[in-house]
Amino acid sequence: MRLAAESVSLGYGADPIVDEVSLEIPDGLTTVIVGANGCGKSTLLRGMARLLRPISGQVVLDGKAVHKQPTRAVAKTLGLMPQSPIAPEGITVVDLVGRGRQPHRGALQRWSPADDAAVAEALELTSTLDLADRVVDELSGGQRQRVWVAMALAQQTDLLLLDEPTTFLDVAHQIDLLDLLHGLRETRGTTVVMVLHDLNLAARYADHLIAMSGGRIAATGKPADVVTAERVESVFGLEAQVISDPVSGTPLVVPIGRHHRPAAHPHAQGA
Amino acid sequence: MTVQSINPTAVVRGARRIPRRRRVLVAGGLGAALFGLFALRVLAGDYIITLPDFFRILGGEEIPGATFILMESKLPRAVLGVLAGLAFGVAGAIFQSTLRNPLASPDMLGISLGASASAVFAIVVLSLNGSALSVAGIVGAVLTAVVIRLVAGSDGGYRLVLVGVTAAAGLVAVIQYLFTRANEYDAQLALRWMTGSLNSASWPTIRILFVALVILLPLVAWTVKSQRVLELGPDVATALGVTHRYADLLLLLAVLLCALAVAATGPVAFVAFVAGPIARVLNGGRTTILGAALVGAVVMVGADYVAAYGFPDTNLPVGVVTGAFGAPFLLWLLASGRAGRR
């Protein structure tokens, strides 16, 4: 276990948004953090990526507090894709992805063939090689998101954190992107940690699921253990049935909604 | 070229070459334009100096009339124009790209005005003069920058721009108040800090600015790699190991460049503001600090030529010309710039 939080509290003002959370991120697996809006899941991810200094407690990377390590050294191990990043005007795809090489280049070191190879690999993994000379602002939302993932991949880190990577993508592109990240764990053994909104996609792609509520961890474990009708109600305030996904066998949340609520209200639960 | 046999590394190398070629072309073109304008500024105008005479004078020969005009007016004005233009251009482009806002140039955020206000204060209240005023100007610019940065906090460009624009408005009021308190002689001296001008260009000033640029510009070149990452926003930059401390360092370098240029020429309107966007349009929409530096110098020398000879019987300060043409030119650029992408 290389990345962990030890009773960490995070926030922007006096009141912590994340309240004394301890967790361990399993190596080589995909961990997904879910929770209702404002539960602190993005804040927790930002804290783990050292974008936020903890109010108390610490985030530990490879046995040392992440905030006590040189940020450049951390950047060689830990990559991050923030929520909806904005590319500078006019930048080309290769140029943007190439900037992911920053932590691997010395102050006076020139661009090397190894950098070319790393960028090429990142573009291939994200199927964006054919976009190499295009301008990022002119790409579609799905292509752009892939390019940002490529930039994080060019950084060649063992751990990769992503904050809602599927926002603004249509459902087909969401699946594409999650497949891509899943493939990464297979081919490179990358430890992936991401925040996702869609509970069903989270249950399908996560090896390890963390459900947050009110700045604390409500449940962690395998999706099948975490996603139950009771928990969906307590964490998301959503009345739902949980059935088995006919394709993957993972839990599938089917919201009930006001108009389909039976009069007797029998809390049905499948699988 | 078949789809199957593409070598990915070669594709990357090829795609990287396109913007690089454009950058070299832009720098070369601007360099040539600057050389041409410099020659025009030095040789042409009301008093024409022939090329043979130019070299004879530089070689130490005394030609009545020509020597004085070249060595005391034309040449120092042109050289100071180039140096101050480079400094303004670099400072503006660093501010705009690091804060990711085309409005955020040091002249818009009150940095230049901070230098002016401090120098005018030194003249009117402290009765200082000479190089002490330059020191006061630089201290004023740095102080203004530090205060803006502290009030705005570390999180991002928007607050900084807001605080900076507010500071600029406040500083204008301070300068105007001080101006009303000044006696005639002091007011004359203070005026030099309120309009940008190359009219009083002198070799000692040039020497100071030159030495400062020789020290500061390599530092800028050295940190430019982190500037390219800071452009991606604070979150991505931190993730790539470049913290906002680098941004502060880079902005401090830009503040010093701007302050030194203001100390040498006064706050020449709009040069720092327009240099970055013009260079950007030429460079296919991409930021180029070197391009912005050269555009700054081209604008300064070109505008000074117009200021000196464009209007009969008057020798305008260069800031009047850059101010008058800068704003409409920028509007035109914004309106037409998108068409020139790539």
Would you give an account of this structure?
The complex is a heterodimer of chains A (271) and B (342). Chain A has helices at 41-48, 71-75, 93-98, 113-125, 141-154, 171-188, 199-205, 223-226, 229-236; strands at residues 3-10, 18-25, 30-35, 56-61, 64-65, 78-81, 159-163, 191-195, 208-213, 216-221, 240-244, 251-255. Chain A has a 6-stranded mixed beta sheet with strand order 6-7-8-3-9-10, with helices on both faces. In chain A, strands 2-1-4-5 form a 4-stranded antiparallel beta sheet. Chain A is built from 9 helices and 12 strands. With 271 residues, chain A is of the alpha/beta class. Chain A folds into 2 domains: 1-77 and 157-222, P-loop containing nucleotide triphosphate hydrolases (Rossmann fold), CATH 3.40.50.300; 88-155, no CATH class. In chain A, strand 1 (3-10) and strand 2 form a beta hairpin. Chain B is mainly α and 342 residues long. Chain B has a single domain, classed as Orthogonal Bundle (ABC transporter involved in vitamin B12 uptake, BtuC), CATH 1.10.3470. Chain B is built from 13 helices and no strands. In chain B, helix 3 (66-98) packs parallel to helix 8 (203-230). Chain B starts with 7 loop residues before the first helix and ends in a 6-residue tail after the last helix. Mean pLDDT of chain B is 87; it is low at 338-342. At the A-B interface, helix 2, strand 6, helix 3 and helix 4 of A face helix 1, helix 8 and helix 9 of B. Chain B: One of its GO terms (cellular component) is plasma membrane. Chain B: It is found in: Cell membrane. Chain B: The chain crosses the membrane at residues 24-42, 78-96, 108-126, 133-152, 158-180, 201-224, 249-275, 287-310, 316-335.
Radius of gyration of chain B: 21 Å
Domain count of chain B: the total is 1
Element order, helices and strands of chain B? HHHHHHHHHHHHH
Give me the secondary-structure category of chain A.
Answer: alpha/beta
By CATH, the topology of the largest domain in chain A is Rossmann fold
Total strand segments of chain B: 0
Classify the helix fraction of chain A into a percent range: 25-40%
Q: Which term fits the overall shape of chain A?
A: globular
Main sheet: strands, sense, barrel of chain A: 6 strands, mixed
Distance between the termini of chain B: 24 Å
Would you count the extended β strands of chain A for me? 12
How many helices of chain B?
13
Shape field of chain B: globular
Q: What CATH architecture of chain B do you see? A: Orthogonal Bundle
CATH architecture of the largest domain in chain A: 3-Layer(aba) Sandwich
**H and E string of chain A:** EEEHEEHEHHHEHEHEEHHEE
The fraction of residues assigned to DSSP E strands of chain A is 15-25%
